[in-house]
Amino acid sequence: MDLETSPIKEAVEEVMRIYKSLPPRPTIEDVKVAMAIIKTVDKEEELKISQNQSFPRISGLDDELFSVLQEARKCFISFHSYQQKKEAQLLLDLDTWFQAFDDIIRRTSELVSTSNGADHHLLLVSSSNSENSENSHVGTKTEKLSIIKVASLIESTAKDGTGVLDLGGKLMDQIEWLPTSLGKLEGITDLNLSENQITALPQTIDRLRFLQKLDIHSNQMTEIPETIGELSNLINLDVHANRLKSLPSSLGNLTNLTSLDLSSNQISELPDTLGNLTRLKRLILETNEIEEIPYTIGSCSSLIELRLDFNRLKALPEAIGKLEKLEVLTLHYNRIKRLPTTMASLSDLREFDVSFNELELVPETLCFATKLVRLNVGRNFADLQSLPRSIGNLEMLEELDISSNQIRILPDSFRFLSKLKVLQAEETPLEVPPRQVIESGPQAVIRFMNDLVAAKEVRRTQVAEENGFCLRICPKFHHRRKEINTGIVPTKA
């Protein structure tokens, strides 16, 4: 029978058509990744269910309703795990189907072994599907990555020895964790995980010993693993805009760190080990719930920028004066009443913001920070009633905000602020200088203060001269007045 027209050919072609209609075959690496993902999710599910079972009873809730609540939580945990495993399980199921078709192909090849063409054709089909499988994970630049694709990308990055992995804003929203295979990126130096929905880093993060930059800002992280302390080469760590409530003490092991951004979290306490970061130049802690800065901050001797805005601070430690390289210190919107007496040591300070606090006094010692360019003590409201007498020492000052305070008189030394370009004094009841002078700009204020002090000097000189003239013209009268004032009256001879 002619093979070209026989039912054998038709049967073989149908088998090939069915085989070709299948989706791309998972690679061996894909299968390994999927199995690892399912294993990790199962462990996470087991841990969360255990935590749910040990959850403390809610006061005022009867046992039966509490049991129902626990059951609802357990169901949600299981459903969430199912969602996380769905893609990986689908891939494993697909691999199982391909194994079944492999057997079909093998049997078909054996049955038509007398026809080399048919057998060769089947091999081509298998090869074609293998090629499609290799390209199955190549997506567009804007495509959001599934957990399988992330894991595959980690594998390929580890294999290629690439130093940079950028996953910033690229993960599907339902991805809340990263596979433990992240630890395979032992040679990576720059890892960007920002702007995703990650809730935790894998413990294997400690294997990235050459990592210098780690960006995980704008995620849903509630904690940083203790193992992060093993990243001894880390220089830049950005964890802002997460849900952190505390920091691991191992953070102090990152002694090469120069920039640390922990802003926009829920941190209430800083570890004492923060003082170990002696190379740290930039520390951003704004928008948290911090009530106290540890005294060990004084050991961060390289610090140039310290931002503590929008916290619950009532005071700064005296150790702040040890930060002699500090150039920027911002404390906007806290509860600070007094500043440390050691402010005089901040000789390199250029920007200082202590607005929206409860500041009662600007210490004279601050005026030793003669490199100050911007000073904001505005909106301390009824608490702040005067500026330091020696404010004129700040001859480099260009911007000054004293708005919404109770300051009525500017000190005489204000006239020495010759470089002042911006003066904010809204809603401050200044009497000297008068409001119309304030509204004419900072240089008008300086001229007014110069004229005022000059007038005072003239008046003082006039008074002194008048007193001297009186003493010369009326010596006997002056002598008599002195006798009366002292109560000593000479007796007659």
UniProtKB/TrEMBL annotation:
Keywords: Leucine-rich repeat, Repeat. PROSITE patterns: LRR. Residues 179-262 form the Disease resistance R13L4/SHOC-2-like LRR domain. GO terms for cellular component: plasma membrane. Pfam families: LRR_1, LRR_14, LRR_8. Gene3D superfamilies: Ribonuclease Inhibitor. It comes from the Eukaryota. Belongs to the SHOC2 family. Leucine-rich repeat protein that likely mediates protein interactions, possibly in the context of signal transduction. PANTHER family: LEUCINE-RICH REPEAT-CONTAINING, PLANT INTRACELLULAR RAS-GROUP-RELATED LRR PROTEIN 4. This is Disease resistance R13L4/SHOC-2-like LRR domain-containing protein. It comes from Dioscorea zingiberensis. The lineage of its organism: Eukaryota, Viridiplantae, Streptophyta, Embryophyta, Tracheophyta.
